[in-house]
Design goal:
It is a single chain. The chain has 6 helices and 8 strands. The chain is an alpha/beta fold. The chain has an 8-stranded mixed sheet with strand order 1-2-4-3-5-6-7-8, with helices on both faces. The longest helix is centred in the last third of the chain and has 20 residues.
């Protein structure tokens, strides 16, 4: 399916946030012969997905993942969560993030992550969801939120704060329970959590799942065997192709059930 992409700017309480969007491009066969050919994709509306990137931010691999998801019939919005520190790229990144370069990059990122409080997350989430659901290409109705690593925590916070708008939640190699069990209580979305084997022991997984059960979250939550933190990201030394495939095998059915009735 051909995909259109855009670089957009989202108004927030703390200034404009740049973002990347990907969505299906309509075929001319979808329109009457008189429809203006100058507006490819106009009139097509797709379920919305807010995709939070990992801490390394918007870069080619995130654009590729957003485009792949868009190819399944979704409008995917990837925001720059560190917009208060500047537009993408907020910091310079190597083409491949591994070894000593990974440590150096993380050293520059950690202050930004530590400054990104729950309050900032929720102010931005309001703006991102409002922007997403007012796009002419986005179908009316609930949306999904997904995220990776630190972005997975932002996805959890967003779903908990907007139970009326978020129908599906997915987070991968993410600190899902970092805000404590009480922070899970507002989630009404169907959820999937895919954990790296290096991030969570089986005992910790059982405790997390107990907390999710106690909060009434309709969820699946599992450790992806043999993976390390960051396994979905092909531009890092944590990448695991089997882990990425399993991520798609879990994410796509979840979105199909909740957003398209598939």
């Amino acid at each position: 399916m051909p995909i259109q992409t855009r670089t957009l700017h989202i108004p927030t309480e703390d200034g404009r946030a740049d973002a990347f969007a990907a969505f299906p491009e309509a075929s001319p066969d979808d329109f009457p012969a008189a429809f203006p050919a100058a507006f490819p994709g106009a009139g097509e509306r797709h379920p919305g997905v807010l995709m939070y990137p990992d801490g390394f931010g918007i870069r080619p691999v995130l654009r590729e993942m957003a485009a792949e998801l868009a190819g399944h019939g979704y409008y995917v919005l990837v925001p720059n969560v560190f917009h208060r520190h500047g537009p993408t790229p907020v910091i310079d990144l190597p083409a491949y993030i591994g070894g000593e370069e990974r440590s150096a990059v993380l050293g520059r990122l950690m202050p930004l992550i530590q400054e990104h409080t729950a309050e900032r997350t929720l102010r931005d989430a309001d703006a991102f969801l409002r922007f997403l659901t007012t796009r002419p290409e986005v179908a009316p109705g609930p949306v999904a939120v997904t995220g990776y690593c630190f972005g997975g925590l932002l996805a959890v916070r967003t779903a908990a704060a907007h139970p009326d708008r978020v129908a599906a939640l997915a987070a991968f190699h993410a600190p899902v329970g970092a805000d404590g069990p009480d922070a899970l209580a507002g989630i009404t979305a169907r959820a999937h959590f895919g954990h790296a084997e290096s991030d969570l022991t089986p005992e910790a997984l059982r405790e997390l799942n107990k907390a999710l059960d106690a909060a009434g979250v309709d969820h699946t939550s599992e450790i992806y065997s043999g993976t390390v933190h960051g396994f979905t990201m092909s531009d890092t030394d944590a990448f695991d192709p089997a882990g990425l495939k399993l991520h798609w095998d879990r994410l796509l059915p979840l979105l199909g059930r909740t957003l398209t009735g598939g």
